[in-house]
Amino acid sequence: MSMTALKGDTAFQARSLFRSLLRQSSQFAAYNFREYAKRRTRDAFREHRAETEEGKVQELMQKGLKELQALKRQTVVSQFFQLDRLVVEGGKSGKQTGDRNDIIRQTTE
Q1: Helix or strand or coil: residue 87?
Q2: Which 3-state string (H, E, C) describes 45-78?
């Protein structure tokens, strides 16, 4: 097998791991955890984008697989604790009324 084929296979595995991590991150019930996991995944892959040393790449892939397993466990646990949707998630619409310290959330439904 040529070196080019090995690099292509590693690149395919890295893209597959990246997609799996993002897909699993979107399974979190809580918005903040979901966005944090997505952001952390993107940042980690961007940070190591130019890595070419084969040993280091394999080490990073193993670390990513461990992270994926941890994300799977965490998302299962997060499903047990359903929270109300936040406004930034496109939940209920409405407007805030009230004076300085007594803001009241009124829905327009």
Answers
A1: helix
A2: HHHCCCCCCHHHHHHHHHHHHHHHHHHHHHHHHH
Residue 71: other Cβ atoms inside 10 A:
21
Determine the residue type at 70.
Answer: A
Q: Are 38 and 26 in contact (CB under 8 A)?
A: yes
Q: What does the pLDDT look like over 31-77, one tens digit per residue?
A: 899 999 999 999 999 999 998 899 999 999 999 999 999 999 999 99
Burial of 45 (0-12, 13-18, 19+ CB in 10 A): middle
The strand pairing partners of 107, in sequence order, are 94
| DSSP 8-state code for residue 39 | H
- Decide: 80 and 53 in contact? Cβ < 8 Å: no
Question: Which pTM value belongs to this model?
Answer: 0.71
User: In this structure, what token pair is assigned to residue 18?
Assistant: 């990246």
